[in-house]
TrEMBL record:
This is DH domain-containing protein. InterPro entries: CNH_dom, DBL_dom_sf, DH_dom, GDS_CDC24_CS, PH-like_dom_sf, PH_domain, Rho-type_GEFs. GO terms for biological process: intracellular signal transduction. Residues 1-41, 54-76, 921-940 are annotated as: Disordered. Residues 406-535 form the PH domain. Residues 572-890 form the CNH domain.
Amino acid sequence: MATPVGRPLSQYDLPDFTISNDREHGHGLSRPTTYSAQSSGHVAFPEPQLYRSVSQQGAGRSFGTAGNEMRRHRPSHSEAYVNTVNTPTSISRNESTASFLSADSFNDYDSISGDSYEEPAYSYDAHEPSVYDRSVDSLSQDLADVSLDSEEGLRRFQSHELAGPEEEWHRLVPEAAREALGNDEVQRQSVLFEIIKSERDYVSDLEAVRDVYIEPLSAANPPIIKPELLKGFISQVFGNVAQILAHHQLMLAALFARQREQHPLIQSGTFRTAYETYIKHYPLAEAHHRKELNRNPDYRHFIQSAASDPRIRKRDLVTFLSRPVTRLPRLNLLIEQLHKLTEHAYDHPDLDTLPTISGILKDFIKSTQPGIEAAESKVKFWALCESLVYRKGEIIDLDLYNDNRTLVYAGPASRRNRQDATFSGWTDLYVALLDHYFFLTREEKRPNGSIKHYMVSRPIPLAYLRLGSFNGATESRRIREEKGGLLDGLRSRTEILYPFTVYHASNKMNRRYTLYVGSEAVRRKWYAAFVDTLAVYKARAEGNMFFSPQKLSEGFFRIAAPGGALTMGRLTGGATSAAPFDANGRKYLAISCPSGVYVGHRGREDFRRVLPFNSASIAAISRLNGKSFNRFVILHDGMLFSYALDILARVAFGEATAEVLDASLQRIAGQDSSTVLFFRIVVVGSRTLLLYAAKKLLQVSLTLHVLEVIDSPEAVLSPRRTGGSKHPSSFRRFGEPGYVPKDAHDVTALTKTVGICTTDGIVIVNPTNLANSSATVVPDFSNHSTDLAMGLLKTKVEDARPLGLVPCGSSELLVVYDTLGCYITRHGEPARKSGFIRWETPATSFAARGEHVLLFSHNFIEVRNKGTGKLVQTIEGAGMRMLYAPSVGEKEPILVAMRGDRKASDSMDDKIVELVETAELSASTTSPPPSAAMWEDWDL
C-alpha cells in the first residue's frame, strides 16, 4: 500500500488577544463609557453610538465647561425608579451599579477615573423631563408603594437554587407589581429576565465543559490521550472556550448586579462579543472530537462517563461545543423580541439602543460565515484524506496535513470507458481539486457506513495540470433503474452530461481525462475553480522557489529554429556540457556545443571559441581539498586528454596563443585500440580520482581505469614521461583496472566507494582496489520470491534506467532511476517496505543539493525532498539539459541549458542558467546535510 506521510495532531494556535484602552471617537461623538472588574483581552468589535446606560448611574456626574456648569444625561427608566429625585453623584466603583454591558463594559473595568470620565454623546436638561421621563417617575412611584420583597428569590435564582418552574420572572414578582406595570411591560421584563437566565445557564454550561471535560481529561492517570498529543487535542477541540467563559463570567456578574439593583424593572443595555475565533474553529473542533471518539476507546469511555454528571444532564459534548456558536443567534432573537415589546409611544431610550445591538450581532454573525465555511471545507478535506486508498507500493507524500492545505472544490463526475452505449460504458468517479493536487477517485461505501476513495489515477500536481476544452457538446448516458422490480432491469432513463477535459502536461496523451458532470452550471463552477486555483498556485510557487533560475547567458549560443534555413556559420548549436572554473583570480565558464568549446567570464556574453572539438564532454579540475590541479579534461571522439586551465582562459581573451595551449596538452587515454566511453572526477577520502571506462574491439565488458590527479606543485617536479608511457605527470595510475558490464553508462561517487550505473542495477565497487574489490549490485532483490512488495518493486525497476545514488540520512540511500526512485539500506536491501516514488516525468539526469534531489527532463525540472520524495517545486521550460552538477562540494553551481525567449525566423536562443538555492526568510534554519563522517562505517 502507498505510504502517505502524515503528522501528529497539531496544536490549535490561538490568536493573541490584546486589551485596548484607546478611546477614539468617530465624527466627534463620544462613545459610552463604563467601568468594571479587570477582564482579559478581546477581539476588536464595532462600537455603536448609544445612550448612556445605567452602568454609569453611580458615575452620572458630568464635568462641564468653564464655570463648572453641571450637566446630566436624561434619566433612564431604572434611574427614575431608583432615584425619584435626580441629584448629581460622584463617580463610584460600587459594583452594584453595573448593568447590561455596553460595547466596552466587560473589557474596561477599573479603567476609568474621575479625570477620564467622558461626557455622554447625548445629554438632556434634567429640568425639562420628557413625556417618557414623567411616565417613568409616575410608574416608579407606583412600584414604590407596593410592598415588594423578593431579594431572597433573586438570590436563590442567581445561585441555581430554584426549581425549573420557579425560574420565571412572574414567579418572582408580586401580582400587585405586575398589575402596576401592565401587560406590555410585563412581557418586556419577562424577555429581559430570559436574557439573564439564558446567560446564567450559558455560563454554567461553559463551566461544566471546563470542570467535567477539560480538567479531568488533562489530569487523567493513566492518560486518555497520549501525553504528547494531549495539549494539542484540547486546544483543537475546546479552542478558546476558557477566554469566552472569562468574558461571560464578568458579564453575568454585571447582569446579576443590575438585576439585584433594579428588580423588577430593568433597563436594557448593549453587548460585546469575542467569539470570532471560536465560531470559525467550531467545525474543526467537532471533527477532532468525533475522530478521537471513533478511534480511541478510552476517550469514548470518558465521554460516556461524563454524561452521568448532573450538570451535563446526559447531553452530548457536541451540544456544549456548539453553545458559543448558537448563543449569538439566540441572543439576537431575544433582543429583537425585546424591541418589539418596547413602548413606541414614548421616547424610550431602548428604541435606539436595541436596534443598534441587533444590527451589531447580525453583522458579526454574518462576518463569521466565511470562516465557518472555510472550517467546514477543512473538515470535508480531512474526511477525504482519511478515506483515500493509494495504489500498492507507491510512496506519495502529498503533504495533506499541512495547515495551509485546502479543499477547493469536489464532487461526482463520470468518465466514459469505451465508445458504446451500454450501461457498463461509464465509470462514476469522485474528483477533488485541492490547492496543490487534483484527485480522481472511485468512491466505495463499506458495510459499516464508512466511505473509501480509491485512487484510479495518480494525483496530478497543479504544476502539471492543464485545462482542455470546457465547451464540448453534451452527451447522453443511459442509467438503469434500480427499484428492484422484475422488469426494472430492462428499464432505463437518459441523463444529459456536460464534458470537460484536463490533462497532465508531461503526458498529454496517456493522462488525458474527459469528465462529465450533470449540468452546465456545475461545469462552469469547475472551470472557475480550476482557473482561480491555478492562478493562486502559480503566484505562490513563484514566491516560494527552493531553486531560482539565474541567467548566465542568453543570446550568444543559438540553435536552428524548426523549419528554418540552415545557416551554420551563425549558429553555435545547443550546449551539451559545461565546466565552471577559477583561474588567474577570475571566474570563468567553459561551454561545449556542436561548434566547439567556448570560454568566457561567468555572467557575461564575451565567449570565444578556444577548441574546435564538437559536442565534447568537459570537466575542469581547478582546486579541490586545498590542492590546485589546474587541468581541463576533454572527452572527444573516444579520446581523453587535458589542457592547462589558466592557459585556456588566457587564450580565450587573446593573452596567449593557441600554440601555447597545445603545448600544455596531456593525452590520458584512447590513443591505442581502446575507446573511452565516459569519465567522472570523484573524491574518495583525500584523493581526487579520475575514473574512465574504455572498451576495446570485440570486448564483451568494459574496463574501468582509475587515475589519481596530481596537484600542480607535484606535477611540476615530476616532468612529463616519455618512452611509451601512457600517463602524463598530472595523472598517475592508481591500482589495477577492473571490469564492469558493457552497458555501464555513468559513475556515482559515495564516501568510500563508487556506483557504476548499469542496466541491471548499480554496481558498488572500491575505486582504490578495483581488481580485488568484490562488486555488489543494488538494490538487492534476492528475497523477492518471498516478499510480494519486493517482487513488485523488482518488476517496476526492470524496465527503468539507473541514474545514480543519493545518500539520505545516515542509514539509507535513494536509488534514482529515470522513471522512479526507491530507498535501500546500508546493505543494499530495499527499505520502507519496498515502496517506490514515481516521478511525474521521465528524467534524463539528476543532481543532489542539500535536502533536495533535482530531476531533469526535456520540459521540466522536478525538485523533491530526497528523504520523503515530496514534490516541492517544478521548473518548466523547453529543451532543458543539465550541463553541470558537481559530484562534490555544495558551493559549486548547478548549470542548465534551455530555450531562450528570443526567437528569429531561422534560429532561437539557447539560454544558460544557474539554479541558485534559496533560503527561508524566517529565522529558522535548515538542518545541515549529513556529513561524510556518517558514512565512514559503511562498506559502500
